[in-house]
Amino acid sequence: MRFLLTSGGVQNPSIRDALVDLLGKPIAESTALFIPTGVYPFPGGGERAWKAIHGQATIPLSQLGWKSLGILELTALPTIREENWVPAVRQADALLVWGGDVLYLTYWLRQSGLADLLPSLSDTVYVGVSAGSIAVTPYNCDAEFDLAFVPDGSDMAEGADRALGLVDFTLYPHLNHPDMEGTELSTIQKWASGIPVPTYAIDDDTAIKVVDGAVEVVSEGHWKLFP
Fold it and tell me: What pLDDT is attached to residue 202?
């Protein structure tokens, strides 16, 4: 796949240009499927999902002017015949993967079968926001936070610190965000020191573009690589 891994969506012209480059055509000529699943574990998750889908969230993603936009709900896929959803995924130009709970999102990416399908989607652009970006890296920087939302008796907590590993680096979003604890550089550096792969700390004006394993930082803000 081709990846555009963002912290806060398509926040500026540089990130938008990177998206258009990955798509190979204008956004207005591109089709997308929106995945809201990661936000459901949080209080008000249903409302947050609705706002994200309808472009009423502050993070620019669904409201970019797509030719068409559909919903891909991961929790529903195990109950649907594959021939009724896999073709739609293969035909989409982009998968828009919303933020939220990394552990929950990663769990349902696996349970739905989409995680197994992703590596075969060579013509699809995966656009992640926050948790949607972390989910395709090897390690979950939000594991400790996410564990608080696991239902009692669920096996979801197993391997909470690991994600899908579709790229060979990990990501820590929302660098120095004023409303988010633990996003200062010193905290991220401490976490990254225990991770055996490179870690990119990125703010909401930065994205990571990945094509055939080649990594490019796209930024109008601040970022740092911990090798």
Answer: 98
